[in-house]
Queue: 4 jobs
Job 1
Amino acid sequence: MRIVSGRLKGRRLIAPKKLPVRPTTDMAKEALFNILNNRLRFQDLDVIDLFAGIGSISFEFMSRGTQRVTAVDANFDCIKFLTKTSEELDLDLNIIKSDVFDFLQKTPLKADLIFADPPYDLPLEEFEQIENSIRERSLLKEDGLLIIEHSKHSNLEHIETYSEQRKYGNSVFSFFKMHS
C-alpha cells in the first residue's frame, strides 16, 4: 500500500501481516480521490474514517492537506499501527479505539465527509445501520458526504440517501448525500 498523492506521495504503508484488514487497493483509492479532487477542497474538510484499519484513507486525506482527520477502529493492533505511523509521518491524526457502531451512537464530532470501509461480509442490515446512525444523529455537516466501500456482491442502492456508486474490480464505493 502506498500514498498515491500529496506531500507524502509514494510513501509505503507496510502493515504487519497479522492485522485483520483488507486495505483499499491503490487503483481504487486513486480513482476515488480523483473523483473527490474534482468536488472538494481537501484543506477545508473534517473527515471521519470508520473501520480505519491501517489508515490508508486517513493518511491519503492528510497527505492532500486535510488537517482534521479522525480514524476509528476497534482493533488494538490497528490502533497501534495508526499511532506509530502517524508519529513517523509527523501527522496529527485523531485516533479513536472504538467499535464503530458505539462510536456513531456517542460521538459529538461532525464531519464534511465520512468514509466507511467495513468488512465486506458485514450483514446488509449493518451497512444500513451505518447510514442510519449518521443520518439520525446528523453527524455530517450541511451537504456532507458519506462513502461506504463494499464488495460488488452488496447492493446499497435502496438506502434513502444513496446517490451513486463507482466500481473498481471487486470494490464498490457507494455515495450518500445528506442534506440538512
Job 2
Amino acid sequence: MTALLFGSISTLADTSEIQRDSFNQAFKEHGLDWDWDQQEYAGLLGSNGGQDRVAAYAEARGETVDAAAVHATKSRIYQETLRSSTITARDGVAETFRAAKEQGLKVGLVTTTSADNLAALSDALGDTVPFDQFDVVVDQSKVAARKPDAEAYTFALQQLGEDASDVVAIEDNLGGVQSAKAAGVKVVAFPNGNTTGQDFGDTRRVDSVDLADLRQ
C-alpha cells in the first residue's frame, strides 16, 4: 500500500444530515412543498450528484423545476452551515491521516463535489484534517464524469503516479465504491448516517478507520 484515498466529503466528516437540511431549506426558498425526511433522503442516495437528484425527483412528481438553481441554493446554505458549525472528523480519520503521512504514504481526496464545498469543509475541519497536506484533491471541476464512473479515481492515480493495485480507497456510498472498483482500486465501505442501509455487497464495511487495518 503506497497511497490512501478518501472518497466523498462524508468519509472525513459526516455532514450527511447538514446536506439533507440544506436541501430542505433550499426547497422552501424556491417555493417547493418538498421535505425530505431522513428515510426518504437515504433512499435517494443510490445515485451521486445533488442536481441530478433534484431533477429526477421533480420528474418523478411531474413537476418542472430549475434543478441547477435549487442545487446552487442548497450548496450556498450547506457551505454557510459548515462554516458556522462545529464539525468533527469521523472516528479514526484524523489519526489515520496523520499516520499515513508519517509513514510516507500519499494521501488523496477523491470526490465529484464542488471545490467550494471542499473549501467550506476545509475551513470547518481546520488543522484536524489539513487539506493542504493532501497529495491530490479531485473535485468536479477536474473530471467530466461523476461517480460511479471511474474517472475521478483514474485521474487521481495519474496525478499521484501510483498503480491501482497499491492503493486503498475509503468510500461512504455505493456510487463511490463502484467508482473505486471500476478503477481497479481496493475499497473499504465507511457508510455515513444516511448510507448505512445501502447494500455494499462483498465490500468490507468498517465503523471506524485505522491505518494498520486498512493495510491488511
Job 3
Amino acid sequence: MAWYDEDSFLTRGLGPYLSTILITALIAFTLPVFLHFFIFRAKTPTSLPTFLVIGPSGSGKTSLVTLFEKGAPSPTHLSQSPLSVRVSLPSTTKAASSKYRSENDPTLKLEKPLLLVDTPGHGKLRHFGLEHLNATPNLKGIIYVVDAASIPSSSTGSSSESGLADAAEYLHDILLVLQKRYTTAKSSKGPKDVPVLIAANKLDLFTALPAPLLKTSLEKEISRVRETRAKGLLTAGSGDADADDRGWLGEGGESKFEFRQMEEVNVPVQVVGGNVLGSEGPDVDKWWDWIGSKL
C-alpha cells in the first residue's frame, strides 16, 4: 500500500477523520501536563544553587543558617554532620540574573530558592566540609564564617591564645583544595569559579576585629601556615618536590600570601563584616547581597 492511498496510515493521519481529531486533541492537552509533572516537578533539591557554610566551631555558622531559614536566630548545638537547608532570597535582595529586568517584571516577585549546607567546624569533623567542596552539584560559593571577636590584630604578635591560628589553618585547607581543583582540571578552560565570602561575624562586639584588619591578619597567618607545612615536608625528605607537590597555596617564592592571588585559580575571596546576633538585631544584609550577586 502506497503512502498516498486513501487507507494508508499517513493519509488517515493527515485527513479529516474523527480518530485523527481525537488523537490530536489528546496530545495537545496531555503534553503540557506531562512536561509540568515530569520535568518541572522532577527537580530535586540538588538542582538548586548551593552555598557551603564552613568555618571553625563557635563562629556562628548554624546560627547564620537558622537566621536565613527562619528570619530569626535560634539556639543551636554543636553540629556533627552536614545539614542542608532550603532558604529563599529576601525580596529586598536582587539576584544578579535579575539585574537588567524591569521593576514591573512579575518574575521578580517569584521565590528564588537556594540551598545552604551547614558543615561541622570541629577539627575531627572538618573532612565533611572538605569533601563537599568537590562533591556538591551546582556549587555557587562558599561562606566561611569567622568569629571576628576571637581574632586579634596582626600587630599584636602571637596568635596562640586566639582563634586566629585555627581559622587560618582551616581556611588554608579549603583554599588549597579549590586551588588543586583548578590546577588539576583536564579542560583547558578550567572549572568554573568558586567565590569565597569570609563572613566576619560578631562585629557588634567591642572586641571584634574590623573586616579590613581581619583580612590582613588571616593573610599573615596563612603565610605562616604554608611555610610551617612546607618545612615539615622538607624535613620528611621531600626537598626535591615542587611547590604544587608540597601543597603551596598561592604564589610560590618568598612572597607573602594575599587573597588576591586566588583569583588566578578562579577563587575570588571577599571579606565582609556583619553579625547574626546583637542588641540591635542581626546585620546580614551585605551577606545576602553577596549571595544574590552569585545567583
Job 4
Amino acid sequence: MAFDGPAPERINGRLAMIGFVAAIALELTRGQNIFSQIQNGGIMWFIGTTILFSIASLVPLFKGVSADSRSEGVMTSDAELWNGRLAMVGLIALAYTEYIKGGTLV
C-alpha cells in the first residue's frame, strides 16, 4: 500500500475507468452532468464501488499474485495502467468542461 506500490495506482485506475463510463452513460441516458449525478445519490454509489473494488484488488495481492504475472496478450498490466491513467484524465477533463460550460457535455 506504499505510495509507489502496485495497489494505489491500479485501484484508482480501475475506479476511474468505471467512473468515466458510468458518468458518460448517465449523461447520455438521463441528461445529467457529473455534478448533478454526484448530488443525486452518486456519493453512495461511489463509496460502495470504492470499497468493493479496493477489496477485490487487494485480495490477490495479499495472496501473492502480482498483476504482471497474469498478463498475457493484449490484456497486460501495462495496458490496464495506461487505460486507468487515461480514465483519470478523462474524468477530470469531463468535470472541468462541464463546469466551464455550465451543463452537460453532450
